[in-house]
Amino acid sequence: MAKKEKQPETGEKVIGNGLSKKEIKRIRMSKMDKTEIAYMRRKEAAEKVWPFFRFLILFGLCFIILYPLIYMVSCAFRAQSDMSDPTVMWIPRHLTLDIIKQTANAMNFWPTLGTTLFLNIGCSLVQVVTCAITGYGFARFRFKFKDLLFGVVILMILVPHQIISMSQYTEFRYFFGLQPMIADAFGSKVGSAFNLIDSPLTMYLPALTANGIRAGLMIFIFRQFFKGLPKELEDAAYLDGCGPFQTFIKVMVPNAASSFLTVFLFSVVWYWNDYYVSSTFFTNNSTIALKLKNLDKLLLLELFGTVQAQVTPREQILWMEAGCLLAVTPLLVMYIFLQKYFTEGIERSGLVG
Question: Is 40 exposed, middle or buried (0-12, 13-18, 19+ CB in 10 A)?
């Protein structure tokens, strides 16, 4: 009579030769010496403990990152009386939209949003195109002073914009030195038309020449990505009769779609959050960042009719947090819909790995 095979314990997964994972592990450890057994036990302990510590680390990071946003939302929708209520920590006792409405009125939100989108999206699109062409040139072509010019690109990353802001202001104010001559020849009225301050051209011209906000980093990202593409793609396009420009449009751009999206999102965020460049070139036009920078004065005018009103910082917290929420909401919505493509672009653009 055949010997009845031993059945694995209930709930254990049966693998090779009808043995459970636990039995195979017991057989392996019976053939090990004391040092190997001690190592295996330490490894098992680490595998059991690590998920707990990983949870704590991720939870702590999420709390640090999300705490300002949670507090911002909590303050934006609570009544002013809740700020003096010691029992109110996170959840407002009196939910209201009054703070949001007052802040939006003080910021003149919808016209300001339109102006910001016109400057933001337009400059970002133009800058992505010009930086992509420049990065492709550095990655695929050989020309004189290539290393020297790429050194200039690196300086664009390292040197802060404050260094060149005054010279740029002078160029735009006097139309690259031609405005005084035009005014003398055709009169001051004609000459004043060539004053570019308070004109969208002060933002579009740098973007058109691949010299906008953080353009050096964008050129570097495109250069690294195009260098990583196979040279055979271009050779095949040249054999089919394509020139350099057709090759870039028909072959390189489709393969670099994820990098284009990544750089576009970076550009949108940087233009959206910029207030230094905007405050340098604009005195009349307003953007979301400029409104947020001057929100304390705007709120005093909206709520009390004068900037001389005495209001403590604690009383202003609600409106300031509401202003921050209004400023970041469009970016959060955009990121929610483009998160998948943004992550893919980060992985393929040479920023990681």
Answer: middle
**What confidence score (pLDDT) does residue 1 get?**
44
> With helix as H, strand as E and coil as C, how does 215-282 read?
HHHHHHHHHHHHHHCCHHHHHHHHHCCCCHHHHHHHHHHHHCHHHHHHHHHHHHHHHHHCCHHHHHHC
pLDDT of 310: 75
Tell me, yes or no, whether 195 and 263 share the same domain.
yes
Range of the domain at 246: 108-293
Q: Are residues 205 and 77 in the same domain?
A: no
Q: Which residues contact 108 (CB under 8 A, 6 or more apart)?
A: 286, 291
pLDDT tens across 231-281, in order?
888 888 888 888 888 888 888 888 888 888 888 888 998 999 888 888 888
Total number of domains constituting the chain: 2
Q: Are 217 and 157 in contact (CB under 8 A)?
A: yes
Q: Are residues 41 and 136 in the same domain?
A: no
Q: Inform me whether the pLDDT recorded for 41 exceeds 90.
A: no
Residues 65, 162 within the same domain: no
Rounded distance, CA 97 to CA 78, Å? 8
Q: Which two tokens stand for residue 114?
A: 């339109």
Supply the CATH number for residue 228's domain: 1.10.3720.10
Indicate whether 3 pLDDT > 50: no
**What size, in residues, is the chain?**
353
190 and 117 in a common domain: yes
Instruction: Say whether both 142 and 189 belong to one domain.
Output: yes
The dihedral of CA 86, 90, 93, 97: what is its sign? positive
Which pair of tokens denotes residue 314? 């604690």
Q: Is this prediction's pTM over 0.85?
A: no
Q: What is the pLDDT of residues 148-187, one digit of tens each?
A: 999 999 998 888 888 888 888 888 888 877 777 877 777 7
